[in-house]
Design a protein that fits this description.
heterodimer; A: 3 strands; 14% strand; B: alpha+beta; six-stranded mixed β-barrel; six-stranded mixed beta barrel; 27 helices; 24 strands; globular
């Protein structure tokens, strides 16, 4: 007989570095629950309009993030600003929050180092 | 409510995603697109497409590949890396293939044979069925069902309200062509001046014929066929403008036809095209006296019209039938035969279009089935390989490889295999076309004359098919096997593999079914051939040489011709190697002239025409070709021009027109003379083996060398029965004829046996190809049966060990393994029988007296397959029954 490995929560560092798409989505969900279209709008706003995620890419990534436990489904509800259709909302999980903070720290270290060397954007 | 374009597009694209993804995210994606395009679809459509291209492969990989969260979120590989990896993958793939040479050789040979044979056959099918004539819009070109005289053709051509153009073309014939100082016989034809315009055929060099060339006794001009220009003039542009001599008259070459244009019937490919107006300048013998352009009795042209798009075929048929009726009023006022207009693409295949079609489809079927068997076999090989590679994949996953990398690497292997197979297939296809060129299609169409070249599209499609096979059966199972997790694939090797055995059994069943199909074809064709060889020919072709001359082409007159025939016969008969010799103007198996006649004492019906086949034969003809005399006498030296005309008839003629009377001494009227029947001979084959005997008269050759119906300057054939090998006698005959007059064009010095062989060509070709491919299929199938039986037995080794330990006898274990393995084989045999019954109908025309459901074949073939299967699965069964229980249990 083989013993099953005990299910334990993975460490936030396991996920680093994040792909840009994942990083963007986690950032978009950092402050509030959003639906898919809302995430796209927020990512677009955060990146100054340089990144527009297509629906296939977006929902594929969302599905994988849910599977990995970084985000989760919130309840379905209509978006008053758009229309009356019911939409599925997503929110970041505690693990997702830790991963985002870890990634931010990683990027911050790099950013500081770059600034120390007078590298400008 | 109409949905915006972007949303409709998105819902269409959504169908391309894996079903699970569609279920989970489909509605949200549509919602997303709907929201995004609320302000108008502009830009959104493009974004949706770009997004789909990017995310589709990812989602399919995720659906098929192993699951694991860390890999799922791994960053995309940096750009630049894929190319380097790809190169490495090919190197690795080559190394892996080199490490298992038996697998590689088996796969490459299977692919090369399958792809090559298919590319070759598709090339043939394309040339014969899809594009038989190289003309503009062949669909609108319709051929008159009857031949026409020149003045009639001119009447048809007036109807520009029905046709965009109407052209006339004569059958092909040989001319004596002198280029510089070398003489040769060339195939030529006559066409109306507008022919190339109507066909839409352009000049490769110079110009094509024009209406202004086509005037009675106009200047003698000619256009060369492209292939002839390439072979005879080596593609020299200076050929245009040269003057050559055609049957002794100077003719100017004004142009070269378009590349790929090979005349309007498959297999003819004329070397020269002349305008119809110069017919009388070129024609020889009897035909030089006919006024070909004005008489309505000389019917020598095929008429082809390019139908106006808006005109229904029926309307044109009615109008042309009406025109013909006005030109040829008939006293009794009865309706005439109605004209039928047939598309040129059908008529181009000649009288036997249906047979050609069936035959080519049959050949395509044979090679297609072989390719399927090959793919099934390859699939089995790859499945076995995938099972063993599961462990390797597990290791690589555990070491951190992404599934994308693994798939890419396995893809490289499949692509490499298909590429090597495809390259080898090019050679196979070229060789196959070379072999095919030696054969003829039904109706005597020489495949060589079709100028076949390996068809790139066919090669690409078959390569793609094998690549798909490689991917489907090589990559997918490997991925599935590795899907659970890296750890389980490393842990054990026994379970989980059994799921593949269902696929393998199905593949095996399919292979058995297809092999049975091919083997049935082989059986049917062998039976058809032996039946064809038993058809009584009415002559004995063994040991007979035929040589053909045309004195008209050498501008002989009747007196000189008579002297030539006599001198040649004397010389040949004097040879010690020759048993007998005779002149005649028929060639057995090539058909002969048909003539209307009137039989003395035979009361014909009100509408009956007595039409018989006729030929002229000299003394000794029947003895030389070995046709049996049934009654009376044959033609002798006493039948001189001065004596009253005599004839020998065949049994069919005697039976039909002298029923209950003695035909000997009877008379019939032909060419305005009463001819006395002096003998009756057995029926002979006139054109093809399947024909029913036709009434036939044989006039005395020497009695028709002068006068209005003289045959002296028409083609004539010398028949020589030799005492030695007839092939060795061919140069002797040639030498003697040259000795009489070196300037007489001689052609077709061949063995009569070769002509007979051409009759059974389709059957022989069928036997050869079916035997080859079914042997291949059987070999592949038995390897497959053996492999699957071994594999299944090894999976159950533990169970068998327990059974033996519990007291199962050796015999019981063998029976169990055999019965287990028999299921797909029995299923395959049944499925194969059903397919064979359907496919047998295609072969019906070539089987003569054999039924397409020939009981012998349909019993023998399944038995043979079952026997082979039994042998192939007995070895693994015996091995399984010798398993040491302890050993089998310890392995686990």
């Amino acid at each position: 007989m083989h013993t099953r490995r005990a299910a334990s929560e993975p460490a936030a560092g396991d996920f680093l570095p994040l792909s840009p798409a994942i990083h963007h989505i986690l950032l978009a969900l950092a402050d509030e629950e959003r639906h898919g279209y809302g995430i796209m709008l927020e990512v677009s706003r955060l990146t100054g309009g340089t990144t527009r995620m297509g629906p296939g890419t977006l929902y594929g990534t969302l599905k994988r993030l849910v599977a990995a436990g970084l985000i989760e489904d919130a309840e379905e509800r209509p978006d008053p600003e758009l229309d009356d259709e019911r939409r599925r909302y997503y929110r970041i999980t505690p693990l997702g929050g830790r991963v985002l903070r870890a990634e931010t720290a990683r990027v911050a270290v790099l950013l500081d180092a770059a600034r120390a060397k007078k590298v400008r954007a | 409510v109409k949905r915006p374009a972007a949303e409709r597009l998105a819902s269409l694209l959504l169908r391309c995603y894996p079903p699970a993804f569609r279920r989970e995210a489909g509605e949200e994606i549509l919602q997303f697109v709907r929201t995004a395009s609320a302000g108008g679809s502009r830009g959104v459509t493009r974004a949706v497409v770009r997004d789909a291209i990017r995310s589709l492969p990812r989602e399919w990989l995720a659906a098929l590949g192993p699951r694991g969260r860390s890999r799922a979120l791994a960053p995309e590989p940096r750009s630049g890396e894929p190319m380097r990896n790809l190169f490495r993958d090919f190197i690795l793939a080559a190394r892996l293939l080199g490490r298992s040479p038996s697998f590689t050789i088996a796969a490459v040979v299977t692919l090369a044979l399958g792809i090559g044979a298919n590319a070759a056959m598709f090339t043939l099918a394309d040339a014969a069925l899809l594009r038989p004539v190289h003309v503009h819009e062949p669909d609108r070109l319709l051929v008159w069902s009857w031949s026409s005289a020149y003045p009639d053709y001119q009447e048809y051509a007036r109807r520009t309200d029905l046709f965009d153009g109407v052209l006339a073309v004569a059958g092909t014939g040989r001319v004596n062509l002198v280029i510089g100082d070398t003489a040769e016989l060339a195939q030529s034809t006559f066409v109306s001046g507008n022919a190339f315009d109507v066909l839409g055929v352009h000049a490769a060099r110079g110009r094509m014929l024009r209406p202004t060339d086509d005037v009675a006794n106009g200047p003698l001009v000619a256009v060369l066929g492209y292939d002839y220009w390439r072979s005879r003039f080596e593609g020299d542009p200076a050929a245009v403008g040269r003057t050559v001599r055609v049957n002794g008259r100077p003719a100017v070459i004004v142009g070269v036809g378009e590349e790929g244009f090979r005349g309007i019937s498959v297999g003819s490919n004329p070397s020269l095209y002349f305008p119809t107006g110069v017919y009388n300048q070129i024609a020889t013998g009897f035909f030089s006296k006919v006024d070909a352009l004005t008489t309505r009795d000389f019917v020598w042209l095929n008429v082809i019209g390019r139908l106006r798009p808006e005109v229904p075929v029926g309307q044109a048929e009615n109008a042309m039938t009406e025109t013909y009726a006005q030109l040829h009023p008939r006293g009794d006022g009865k309706p005439r035969e109605r004209l039928v207009l047939t598309p040129l693409s059908t008529r181009a295949l000649g009288r036997n279009a249906g047979e050609v079609r069936n035959f080519v489809v049959l050949l395509l079927g044979v090679v297609g089935v072989t390719l399927l068997i090959g793919c099934a076999n390859l699939a089995n090989l790859l499945l076995a390989k995938a099972a063993t590679r599961r462990r390797e994949i597990g290791v690589r996953l555990a070491l951190g490889a992404t599934r994308a990398r693994i798939v890419q690497q396995m893809l490289a292997e499949s692509v490499l295999l298909a590429a090597i197979g495809g390259a080898a297939a090019l050679g196979v296809a070229a060789a196959a076309l070379g072999t095919l060129s030696k054969f003829q299609l039904p109706g005597g169409i020489a495949i060589e004359s079709m100028g076949l070249q390996v068809n790139g599209a066919a090669l690409a499609v078959t390569c793609g098919l094998s690549l798909a096979t490689g991917l489907l059966f090589g990559v997918v199972p490997a991925l599935r096997a590795s899907r659970a997790s890296a750890v389980t694939s490393l842990r054990d090797q026994g379970h989980g593999l059994t799921s593949g055995s269902g696929v393998r059994a199905t593949l095996l069943g399919a292979q058995v079914a297809l092999s049975l199909l091919l083997l049935t074809g082989t059986g049917l064709f062998i039976r058809g051939l032996s039946s064809a060889l038993q058809v009584p020919l009415g002559f004995d072709e063994r040991g007979v040489v035929t040589a053909s001359v045309n004195l008209g082409l050498a501008r002989y007159d009747e007196a000189r011709a008579g002297a030539f025939f006599e001198a040649a016969l004397d010389r040949i008969r004097a040879l010690p190697q020759v048993e007998s010799a005779a002149w005649g103007n028929l060639v057995p198996t090539r058909g002969v002239m048909m003539t209307q006649t009137e039989v003395d004492g035979y009361a014909k019906g009100p509408d009956e025409d007595v039409t018989v086949y006729g030929a002229h034969v000299g003394p000794g003809y029947f003895e030389t070709v070995g046709t049996r005399l049934v009654a009376g006498r044959t033609v002798t030296d006493d039948d001189r021009p001065s004596s009253s005309p005599v004839a020998v008839i065949n049994e069919r003629m005697a039976g039909q027109y002298w029923a209950g009377r003695n035909p000997i001494g009877g008379r019939f009227r032909m060419f305005d003379q009463w001819i006395t029947v002096v003998g009756v001979v057995e029926n002979t084959i006139v054109r093809e083996l399947s024909e029913t005997p036709v009434p036939h008269v044989y006039l005395a050759f020497d009695q028709w060398l002068t006068g209005r119906e003289s045959i002296a300057t028409n083609p004539a054939h010398l028949f020589v029965r030799t005492r030695i090998d007839p092939a060795a006698a061919v140069p002797l005959v040639r030498e003697q004829l040259r000795a009489v007059d070196p300037e007489v064009p001689m052609f077709d010095i061949v063995l009569l046996a070769e002509r007979v062989a051409a009759l059974v060509m389709p059957q022989r070709m069928g036997v050869a190809l079916f035997t080859l491919f079914s042997a291949l299929a059987l070999a592949l199938a038995s390897v497959g049966i053996y492999g699957v039986a071994t594999y299944v037995a090894s999976l159950r080794a533990r169970e068998i060990g327990i059974r033996i330990a519990l007291g199962a006898t050796t015999g019981a274990v063998r029976r169990m393994v055999l019965v287990q393995g028999a299921r797909p084989i029995v299923a395959g045999i049944l499925a194969g029988l059903v397919m064979a019954i359907y496919a047998g109908r295609l072969a019906e025309a070539f089987l003569l007296n054999v039924s397409p459901m020939d009981p012998l074949t349909f019993v023998a073939v399944p038995l043979a397959i079952a026997a082979i299967a039994l042998v192939a699965s007995y070895v693994p069964a015996r091995r399984a029954s010798r398993i040491e229980p302890v050993q089998a249990l310890r392995d686990e």
